[in-house]
Amino acid sequence: MSRRTRVTRALLLCIIVALVLPVACAGASHRSARQGDVAYFSSGDFDSNELNEREPGSGQTPLMAASLAGQHLVVKALLELGADPNIGEKDGYTPPHGVAFQGRPEAAAVLIEHDIRVDEAHEDGYTPLHRTVWGGQSNHIETARVLLEEGDVDPDALDAKGLSAAHVAAKRKNDEMVRTLLRLGADPNLQTKTGDTLLHAAVNAQRPKMVEAVIRAGGDASVTNAHGQTARDLAERLPSEEVRALFVSHAEVGVEKKAADAPDEL
Question: CB–CB of 113/80 below 8 Å?
Fold first, then answer.
């Protein structure tokens, strides 16, 4: 083998190492983040240059990878090492959006504990709260609770379509999510661009328990939408007899209450 050939091969090897080594390092840190291997990030195997390294393909940093996987202890460790929570993955989504979409309440709580804002909308017009409502499972409901109670998130923020999280939950027929949002401050009389309140949305969903919850939370059955319809008008046009009966029963309770509150005649 000639000297020139040996030099050429050595140079090629250097180039290959320079290209492959960062990918290998990123693979180790991202794999550890997803697997919840907290010890890796305090070991001699971890290089601080990996801290904010974006993974080829996904564009995720180790922090984003841990957030999506719900590895809250790794999320905490990375933040304490100085990981940047503002680096988005390939589509620009940051850790608050990741924990919300996947329904990772513990990881969401860690982000909040480290003073990371969890109410900022992505360029697509949706906030983390909107994303967690899409999921609708028990872990998403708990994530919504964390965002609202601990993250000081506005429950009535509108998404790209002009809907609040509660309106979206109603459209998805998620009774428990609607109840949770109402309990944590969602306005039952907030109107969409078409004038629909949450009561309109609950009636449209034909969910008696949801309608009951909205009425009990102060939903006003007299509010009209852009079509001049109240929620009760809407109920009369839709098939659920149970939903229609709720308006009758609550109207009767209202009459009885007014009678009870009226002063006695002299």
Answer: no
Q: Which helix (H) or strand (E) holds 24?
A: helix 3-35
- C-alpha 78/C-alpha 55 separation (Å) is 16
Burial of 3 (0-12, 13-18, 19+ CB in 10 A): exposed
pLDDT tens-place string over residues 65-114? 999 999 999 999 999 999 999 999 999 999 999 999 999 999 999 999 99
First to last CA, the chain: 120
CB distance 94 to 64 below 8 Å: yes
Write down all domains in the chain, each with its CATH number in brackets. Answer: 31-153 (1.25.40.20), 159-260 (1.25.40.20)
For residues 101 and 113, is the Cβ–Cβ distance under 8 A? Answer: no
pLDDT, residue 5, reads 54
What confidence tier does 249 reach under pLDDT thresholds 50, 70, 90?
confident
pLDDT at 27 over 90: no
State the sign of the Cα–Cα–Cα–Cα dihedral 114, 116, 117, 121. Answer: negative
- Choose between 249 and 183: higher pLDDT: 183
